[in-house]
TrEMBL record:
Function: Catalyzes two sequential steps in the biosynthesis of coenzyme A. In the first step cysteine is conjugated to 4'-phosphopantothenate to form 4-phosphopantothenoylcysteine. In the second step the latter compound is decarboxylated to form 4'-phosphopantotheine. Catalyzes two steps in the biosynthesis of coenzyme A. In the first step cysteine is conjugated to 4'-phosphopantothenate to form 4-phosphopantothenoylcysteine, in the latter compound is decarboxylated to form 4'-phosphopantotheine.
Protein name per Swiss-Prot or TrEMBL: Coenzyme A biosynthesis bifunctional protein CoaBC
Residues annotated as domain Flavoprotein: 6-175
PANTHER family: HOMO-OLIGOMERIC FLAVIN CONTAINING CYS DECARBOXYLASE FAMILY (PTHR14359), PHOSPHOPANTOTHENOYLCYSTEINE DECARBOXYLASE (PTHR14359:SF6)
The keyword Cell division belongs to this UniProt entry's keyword annotation: no
Molecular function, one GO term: metal ion binding
Organism name: Paramagnetospirillum marisnigri
Domain DNA/pantothenate metabolism flavoprotein C-terminal: 184-396
Region of interest: Phosphopantothenoylcysteine decarboxylase: 1-188
C-alpha cells in the first residue's frame, strides 16, 4: 500500500520523539520514502544522525539554510510528499498550526503545504485537556487535519492519563488509511458508536452496556477502504480507530448535533446504542438519600431520533445510504423490519443483545442485514469481521455493483 509513497515526517520536541524512529523504520520497510523535519525541540530527544540513518535522507532543520532554499525550498519540501505527518505533535506546534504562525521550518512547511496532514498529539494530560489545546485541535480538525490518538496511559512526567502519543503501529495504520486508494476513496462517512449517558444529576446517569466495539470497528473498516470517516462516539473505553476523525459526546442530543455537523455525507451508519429517553427533571445538585424519605421520582422524556432524523433529512442532506442498527432481546427480525419501515433508513442491521448473547461488550456478533430486498443472515463472527463485511457491502452499493 505504501510502496512508492512519500511522507514528510515532522518530529517536534517531546520524549515521544523516540517513537518516531520506529515509525520511520516501519515506513521504510513498506517501501515508503520518508523525509524528515526535526525541530529544535525535537533534536533534544533524537539526533539528526539517527533520523538520517533510518530515513536514508538528509534531515531538515533550518528555514534559512540557503543551500536547501536554492535546491529545494520549504515550499517544495512541503508539497513533494503525499502526506505530512507530525509525530509527536506538541501543544506548541498545534497552537502554531491553528493560528497560522510560521516561525520555524516545521510550522512554515505546515502552512505552505497543500497535502493532507496527520497529527499524533503527545503532551501532559492537563495540557491535552486544556481548553486552549482542545480549541486548537477542533480548529485543525475542522480544516481537515486528521488525528491519531493520543492514548491514555503512563506518561513520561510520571502522571497517568490522556496525552500519550499513539504507538508507531497505530500511526502507521493511520498513514495507510490516509494514503489508501480503496473503493471508498472520496466517500464521506459518518458512524455513531457506543452508548449515550443521560444525566440524572451531576453524579448519576442512565446508560446501557454498549462498549462501542462494533461501531468503532465499522468506522475503521470504512476508513481502510478509503472513506473519509467521522466517528461520533458516546463514552467508551476503547482506543480511537486509526485514520478516523472522532467527535466525543455524552448525551443523545450531543450525538445528534455531532452527526448534523458532519453532514453532508454519502453514508451514515447509526451503530450507537442511543438511550430512548432522557431525564426531564435533571437535578443541578446531587440527589441526596434521606432517611425515611421515598426515593426521588425521575421523569423521563423522549430523546431525539437520530436515525429517523438522518433518514428523512431534506435540503440535500439525506445521505445516499443510511444504515441503522436494531439491538433487540425478543422477536428480533419482526422488530427490525418494523424499525426499517418506521425510520425510513435503507438498511437495518439486526442483532440479538439479550442476556447470554454476549453481544454487548463482547468481541463477536451475529447479525441479519435487512433491506427492501429481504434478509441477509450472516454467521456469527468477530466484530471486526462483521465490520469488514458491512463496509464491503456499503462499497458495492455506493459503486453501483
Amino acid at each position: 500500500m505504501l510502496d512508492g509513497r512519500r511522507v514528510l515526517l515532522i518530529i517536534s520536541g517531546g520524549i515521544a520523539a523516540y517513537k518516531s524512529l520506529e515509525l520511520i523504520r516501519r515506513l521504510k520497510d513498506r517501501g515508503c520514502a520518508v523525509r524528515c523535519i526535526l525541530t529544535k525541540g525535537g533534536a533534544n530527544f533524537v539526533t539528526p544522525l539517527a533520523v538520517a540513518a533510518l530515513s536514508g535522507d538528509k534531515v531538515y532543520q533550518d528555514t534559512f539554510d540557503l543551500k536547501d532554499e536554492s535546491e529545494m525550498g520549504h515550499i517544495r519540501l512541503s508539497r513533494e510528499a503525499d502526506l505530512v505527518v507530525v509525530a509527536p505533535a506538541t501543544a506548541n506546534l498545534l497552537a502554531k498550526m491553528a493560528a497560522g504562525i510560521a516561525d520555524d521550518l516545521a510550522s512554515t512547511a505546515l502552512l505552505a503545504t497543500d497535502k493532507p496532514v496527520l497529527v499524533a498529539p503527545a503532551m501532559n494530560t492537563l495540557m491535552w485537556e486544556h481548553p486552549a489545546t482542545r480549541a486548537n485541535m477542533a480548529t485543525l480538525e475542522g480544516r481537515g487535519v486528521a488525528r491519531i490518538g493520543p492514548n491514555a496511559g503512563d506518561l513520561a512526567c510520571g502522571e497517568v492519563g490522556g496525552g500519550r502519543m499513539a504507538e508507531p503501529a497505530e500511526i502507521l495504520a493511520a498513514i495507510e488509511t490516509s494514503l489508501s486508494d480503496g473503493p471508498l476513496k472520496g466517500v464521506r462517512a459518518v458512524v455513531t458508536s457506543g452508548p449515550t449517558h443521560e444525566a440524572i444529576d451531576p453524579v448519576r446517569y442512565i446508560a446501557n452496556h454498549s462498549s462501542g466495539k462494533q461501531g468503532h470497528a465499522i468506522a475503521a473498516a470504512l476508513a481502510r477502504l478509503g472513506a473519509e470517516v467521522t466517528l461520533v462516539s458516546g463514552p467508551v473505553h476503547i482506543p480511537d480507530p486509526a485514520g478516523v476523525r472522532v467527535v466525543r459526546v455524552d448525551s443523545a442530543v450531543e450525538m445528534l448535533n455531532g452527526v448534523r455537523a458532519a453532514l453532508p455525507a454519502d453514508v451514515v451508519v447509526c451503530a450507537a446504542a442511543v438511550a430512548d429517553w432522557t431525564v426531564a427533571n435533571r437535578a443541578t445538585e446531587k440527589r441526596k438519600k434521606k432517611v425515611g424519605a421515598p426515593p426521588p421520582v425521575i421523569e423521563l422524556a423522549p430523546n431525539p431520533d437520530i436515525l429517523m432524523t438522518v433518514s428523512k433529512a431534506e435540503g440535500g442532506l439525506r445521505p445516499r445510504l443510511v444504515v441503522g442498527f436494531a439491538a433487540e432481546t425478543e422477536a428480533l427480525l419482526d422488530n427490525a423490519r418494523d424499525k426499517l419501515a418506521r425510520k425510513g433508513c435503507d438498511w437495518i442491521v439486526a442483532n440479538d443483545v439479550s442476556e447470554g448473547s454476549g453481544t454487548f461488550g463482547g468481541d463477536a456478533n451475529l447479525v441479519h442485514v435487512i433491506d427492501a430486498d429481504g434478509i441477509d443472515s450472516w454467521p456469527r463472527m468477530g466484530k471486526d469481521a462483521v465490520a469488514a463485511r458491512l463496509a464491503e457491502r456499503i462499497a458495492n452499493v455506493l459503486r453501483g455493483l
